[in-house]
Amino acid sequence: MEKFKFRLERVLDVKRIREKEKQREWVVARMEREERQREEHELKLDHQAFNNRRKTNASIGEMKIEAELSRGIRFKIRKQAIKVAQATLLEDQANQRLLEAMKERKVLDNLRDRKQEEHRIEENRQEQKSIDEVASRRYIDTLHKGSRS
């Protein structure tokens, strides 16, 4: 019997390539989200450091300036939180596309495995049939030789 050949192997190869592309897209999206979170964390640290440096005996003018600076930093933090949320959404979408590509590839992998098992079973059946035929011929030959004697 001939060697097993999966007729959808090219389709499976395309699915594997697509899955790798989706995995790369997800990694890029994850890195982007992590970078946005790092930037947000740095802004929060800056705000905390700024608050720790505030003068307790500052004049009203200095207090107004400090309050305005603090408001500006808080605005940047809120703006960065929005960027983090957007990056998280993009990462989630990329992850969903990756999962879908993995499912598509897995379906074909399972089909290939089933077809390969069917082929193996058929090979075994053919081999057993050949063995049975040889055994039958030998048995018949021994019967003929035994009846001639």
Features:
mainly alpha, rod-shaped, single chain, 149 residues
Give the integer mean of the pLDDT values: 93
Helicity range of the residues?
over 70%
Question: Total helix count?
Answer: 2
State the distance separating the first and last CA atoms.
Answer: 39 Å
- The strand count comes to 0
Share in β-strands: under 5%
Summarize the structure.
The chain has helices at residues 9-53, 60-148.
Task: Tell me what the structure shows.
This protein is mainly alpha-helical. It is built from two helices and no strands. Helix 1 packs antiparallel against helix 2. The longest helix is centred in the last third of the chain and has 89 residues. It is rod-shaped, with a radius of gyration of 36 Å. The model has no long low-confidence stretch (mean pLDDT 93).
Question: What's the layout of helices and strands?
Answer:
Elements lengths: L8 H45 L6 H89 L1
